[in-house]
Amino acid sequence: MAKHVRLWISRQEFESPSGYYKLSNRDEVMKIGIDCDDVLSVSIAAFRKYFNKKYDKDLYYIRWEEPGKLGLTTNEFYKVWEDFCKADEHKKMDPIPHSFEVLKRLNKEHELIVITARSKQLTDPTVEWINTNFPNIFDNIHLINENNKINTKTKLEVCKELKIDIMIDDRLDNLLPCAKEGIKCIWFNQYTTHKEKISYPKTNIIKVKSWQDIEKEIKEGK
Length: 222
Prior knowledge:
Blueprint: E1 31-34, H1 43-55, H2 74-85, H3 88-91, H4 99-107, E2 111-119, H5 123-133, E3 140-145, H6 155-162, E4 166-169, H7 172-180, E5 184-188, E6 205-208, H8 211-220
Parallel strand pairs: 1-2, 1-4, 2-3, 4-5, 5-6
């Protein structure tokens, strides 16, 4: 029977006759934190399709951080987001191209931990989607916000608690505090909702366009 990820576990809890979870040299293992939405999953496109259908709109441009431009209050936006996460459109949401095969290779050498700003009340649909699309890949899944409240805990705080070596995220504002604290950051910029034409410090932050680029940066940076 396939083993599915559970919350807040360690890889040592699993037993595998094939040795799939046994790493050759624990001293060389890195802890890699990975965002979910628009890093693992093509979330913005799936949500936009759901939103347009629900409100009879034809929007092409949606940003998570600007619910007012959708004609919604922040609370209304999170209610729509919660409904989306429990809908078929979320279950059928595609993973980012090449993410699974790259993570399957990285899984053999490193600890992979999902760190998402999603609310803990969305644990079930989030874990279900990850189990379906990334079976046996992640050591832990952390949903860091409470009841759709933003910044209950920051990703930096979680990264420091978990002693994360590398953080992968599509939001630069999540990575900047991590980079300042010496955490190596990979800015996954291909599936952001707009072209971010801003300067950013190059120290501890690398910008990439694909999961192949992520794999290359991790291997070359070991």
